[in-house]
Amino acid sequence: MNNTKKYGKDYTLVVVGQIVSLFGNAILRFSLPLYLLRKTGSPTLFGIVTACSFLPMIVLSLLCGVLADRVNKRNIMVCLDFLTAGVITVFSWLLGIHYHRRKYDILGDCRALKKDTY
């Protein structure tokens, strides 16, 4: 029997990385609208966020299909993964600022209530 591997280690790492990336994107695209629906109770916001999460995939798939045929696919995957990481980092940072600002506003309100009681 011939004991040769069909795929190399690099190819397997790229495929596994893409599977994890696509799975994470699908979970985010599914869970974010549900989270907003639970927090706000607004079906309109749920529909808008769901549409906004699927709209780029529909519109850009036509243009990016042509681009993927002409450019190195590995470079496209790396660039898009870095872009996704950057966007997530920026939004996490902005959410952290909002959280801390809101936390200190609540503390300020509590201190004001405490002063009013004396």
Automatic annotation (TrEMBL):
<keyword id="KW-0812">Transmembrane</keyword>
<feature type="transmembrane region" description="Helical">
    <location>
        <begin position="12"/>
        <end position="32"/>
    </location>
</feature>
<dbReference type="Pfam" id="PF07690">
    <property type="entry name" value="MFS_1"/>
</dbReference>
<dbReference type="InterPro" id="IPR036259">
    <property type="entry name" value="MFS_trans_sf"/>
</dbReference>
<dbReference type="GO" id="GO:0022857">
    <property type="term" value="F:transmembrane transporter activity"/>
</dbReference>
<keyword id="KW-1133">Transmembrane helix</keyword>
<feature type="transmembrane region" description="Helical">
    <location>
        <begin position="44"/>
        <end position="68"/>
    </location>
</feature>
<keyword id="KW-1003">Cell membrane</keyword>
<feature type="transmembrane region" description="Helical">
    <location>
        <begin position="75"/>
        <end position="95"/>
    </location>
</feature>
<dbReference type="GO" id="GO:0005886">
    <property type="term" value="C:plasma membrane"/>
</dbReference>
<protein>
    <submittedName>
        <fullName>MFS transporter</fullName>
    </submittedName>
</protein>
<dbReference type="InterPro" id="IPR011701">
    <property type="entry name" value="MFS"/>
</dbReference>
<keyword id="KW-0472">Membrane</keyword>
